[in-house]
Amino acid sequence: MKHRILSIAAIFAVFATLMSCQEKTPEVVYSEVPFETISITAGDETVDGVISGTNVTFSFAAVEDFTACSINFEVNEGWVCTWPTDPTNVDLTVDENLVLQFTSPKNAIVKYYISFTSNSLPIADASKIKVAGDPAAVVEVNNAKKTLKIYYNQETMNEAAIELVFEEGALIPGATYEGTAFDFTETLSNDFVIKTATGDVAYTLKLDKSSLMPNPATLGFSDVTADYTDVEGVTILKATALTEIPDYRAKYDDINNGYIAETPLSGGEGYYGDWWSYCNADCAHTVWEGLGDEWVEARQKISIDPIEVVVVMIDESELAGKMYTDASNSVTSGTVGSFLTISGASSNQGEAGLWAENVWYDDYLDATYAGLQDAYIRTAIGFNAAGKMSMQVAGNASGVWYKWNKLYDENCAAPDYADFTEWEVVSVAVTVPSHVRGGHKMKVQEIRTSDGWAGETAFGDAWNGRRARMFAGRTHDGRVAYAAFQGSFGYIDILGWEDYNGIGTVQASYVLEKLGFKDVIQIATAMYTEDGYKPTILLDGQTLIGDPAQAAKYCIGYDVR
Fold this sequence. Notes:
Layout: H1 2-21, E1 38-42, E2 45-48, E3 50-52, E4 55-60, E5 70-73, E6 80-83, E7 99-103, E8 109-118, E9 129-131, E10 139-142, E11 147-151, E12 162-166, E13 181-182, E14 189-196, E15 199-208, E16 222-223, E17 234-239, E18 242-246, E19 252-253, E20 258-259, H2 293-297, E21 301-304, E22 308-314, E23 319-324, E24 331-332, E25 340-343, E26 354-356, E27 359-362, E28 378-383, E29 389-397, E30 400-404, E31 420-422, E32 427-430, E33 436-437, E34 440-441, H3 444-451, E35 469-475, E36 480-486, H4 505-515, E37 517-525, E38 537-539, E39 542-545, E40 551-552, E41 555-560
């Protein structure tokens, strides 16, 4: 009987042991956050972060260099830090490194956003920096790099006078900003200072115009830069056909069984309304807008195929330019010897005044005996001693060049010579009137009044004749650009222009404006008297387009700085 009792007791003991083994291990409770405290070591300073939700702020006393920092934290159990891969060596001046990323024990991704200030970095709250006249504009600030960026809005911003507004709280206590208007017409960055108790802190303001620079492929261009050069700051585009281009001709004339030749001198109801008329008292509705919606929508769209187009865009911080000619006012691009060479006005182009180093090689615009007056004010392209190109409405008086400090006058008023200031250039060439100035599509009367010359050459058949042409300009992203349109031409027959391979002046300007040109000036064109002009562009000894042996009144050459 005792043995039975012991056996039963043993069974119960074994059963109890088994039951105890089946009891659940207590569940581990993980922290809801990846860390409890965090600090950053930059230089000789270590600063604790102030945590507010998923935002962490740091306030440094005097550190300026944040390129090699250590982010110090202890990861809680079950959490994994996935970014940065090396928290002990982080460049806080790179935007993407300002986000810490963790994986939770339940495999959720959690991000923490780092911001910091320093007495040496006086911007405290970027959201309180505004753009005058455009309160909706966002100013992006990289305090560590001391840069600010604005995305350009062509409708609300004047690129020649952009002003920053620092609202209360934008700067650390004691810091001040003395406002000024920034001119971005020829550059995309401007420097300024913020004053602090310990001295001036230099910042750079950048203007982002990428929205105005479309993908060239959408317009039929291919980027062929890599086929020709690896020099920094050079872009080469080519096209062999242009589609969806407004027709240069007016409406079809059933009586004459052909297209009516259209020029600004045509006018009259029989020539597509009164668009070409000159300015009257109110100027607004009778002026043809050269590239505007009305002109585009009123015409059928055509393809120009075949045609050879080459566009070269250059960064003037990498390349410097100058003009070349000789005593006979004739030079070939193949003899210039520059890294990049652009042929200028054809040797048969009569209205291409040329001046270089105080010498008139072609005195078409020489008004030294008369001073500034209407007949001697023209659209011109010039270079200064540093190799920078500019395009101006200008004139020469007593050997000194003067520029009109306006791109155009919206009231079609003639230039006031009181508004002219000295234009510091070492070489100048006269061009035909420009069609786009500062992103503005010029009207006929604006062109006339800003050119100072009312000759028919600027508004006659050359306006829309299908010819070979060379253009200069500046793009919205701050680069100088040249465009060559190669084609042949002949006598304009009212019964049909289909046999002529080339492009009209306004058509070419339309293409370049769409490509991102904010300034467009035609510097050379084939003349009706001959069919020999070929706009030429050479790059490092390679012919991109044209004929290196063809003589021009001048050439433009660029060399690496």
